[in-house]
Amino acid sequence: MRNLTIPAGRIFGVELRIHWTFVFLLLFVWLAEPASHAATSAGRGLALAGIIFAAVLLHELGHSLASMHAGIPAKAIILLPIGGITLLDETRQPLELGASTWRRDIRIALAGPTFSLVAAALSAGVVLAAAPNVQLWSHPYVHSGNLPRSFVWANLWLGVFNLLPAYPMDGGRVLRAVFSRRMDPARATRRAISIGQAFATLFMLTGMLGNLWLTMIGFFLFIAAQLEDRSAIFQSVLETVRLEDIMLTDFATLSPADTLEDALDKAVHCLQDDFPVIRGSDMVGVISRQKILQTLRAEGNGYVQAVMNRIFEVAQKKESLASAFRKLTARNLSIIPVVEEQRLVGIVTLQNLMHSMALLAESRKLRKAALDA
Smallest Cα–Cα separation from 134: which of 117, 115, 147? Predict the structure, then answer.
């Protein structure tokens, strides 16, 4: 998703990223409103896109605050013109899924529309009191020629539109939560995504009859559904693939008695960035290539035992990728040894894990496409 988004800073500790479709929105405003072609009106067209951006940001902050209250802080927000995608912190999510969390998921989903509708009501009151000549109920409701009215209606439409049962809109997330009461989360998500794609197609076809805004909404909804589809596949890989399927079994180890220069020499001749440190048959620590280099530059040669990290996590062969990912990110680790009957049988590094997850997700996507065809 990072390849399709632009970083836009942080708010309340949550990373903000703008999806490329906001550029498309600017182009659409320019094409749909001939008045914006004039140099004097170009700024208003840009301001209209900014108003939609602010409405979407407020909407997604509602989700973030609700998820934070539920004990699952948001990690990042991807903003699209029709809403956004809030990425939750996987390391803080409870292990239970499905029926035990559906009420929580519904509360988080409804927080966004609630914020939007409250913002619309408050801004309408301010506009009517401060500038009654704005003609709040006149058509067109969202237009660069009347920005105060556009702010009110952008929030109103965003709140109402997100109540549709079209995943990944919030109504679709409510629908997925209801589905998850009787089926596993991955299947519930896939069914909700299918309904969302059907809504997107209906909007685009209906809009072609004469409503460009409806066509645009259908297009953005389709893009958002595709993003969620990728995310669902990725999550499926995390939960179903075991460490024994992707762990590295041919790896180098170091001894506490190795010098840093010997360790660096071994690092040069292998592709590993992180090494288990073994004394006899026991694992006593881990050390990274970067740590070896930093210590050599700062302090000169020494022994691995003096600089290795003695705090590390271990995992079992049958654990899921999701479990390994939580362990790695919870303590900001870069390697997890995989053991069987207290014997080191493999390692999983963060680099290896991310590479494997991406390949497995792409493989499942290709198989799904082949089945659909």
Answer: 147
User: Is 62 in contact with 112 (CB distance < 8 Å)?
Assistant: yes
Q: Is the pTM of this model over 0.85?
A: no
**Confidence class for position 60, pLDDT limits 50, 70, 90:** confident
The pLDDT, as a whole number, for residue 97 is 44
Give Cα separations from 97 to 57, 92, 185, 188 (angstroms).
Answer: 28, 13, 7, 12
In angstroms, the CA 176 to CA 372 distance is 21
Q: Which residues contact 320 (CB under 8 A, 6 or more apart)?
A: 238, 239, 240, 241, 242, 243
Task: Retrieve residue 325's tokens.
Answer: 């990912």
244-359, CATH topology level: CBS-domain (3.10.580)
Residues 71 and 65: beta-carbon distance below 8 Å: no
Residue 102 CB partners (closer than 8 Å, separation 6+): 177, 178, 180, 181
* Amino acid symbol at 74: A
Q: How far apart are CA 121 and CA 63, in angstroms?
A: 19
**Both tokens assigned to 53:** 């951006």
Q: How confident is the model at residue 89 (pLDDT cuts 50, 70, 90)?
A: low
In angstroms, rounded to a whole number, what is the distance separating the alpha carbons of residues 184 and 240?
A: 12
Long-range contacts of 21-24 (CB under 8 A, 24+ apart): 21/80, 21/81, 21/220, 21/223, 22/49, 22/53, 22/79, 22/80, 22/81, 24/81, 24/219
Cβ atoms < 10 Å from Cβ of 162 = 23
Domain borders along the chain are: 2-240, 244-359
For the chain, the distance separating the N- and C-terminal CA atoms, rounded to the nearest angstrom, is: 25
Confidence of residue 254 (pLDDT cuts 50, 70, 90): very high
**CA dist., res. 170 & res. 189, Å (int):** 13
Give me the mean pLDDT over the 326-335 stretch. Answer: 76
Within 10 angstroms of residue 22's Cβ, the number of other Cβ atoms is 20
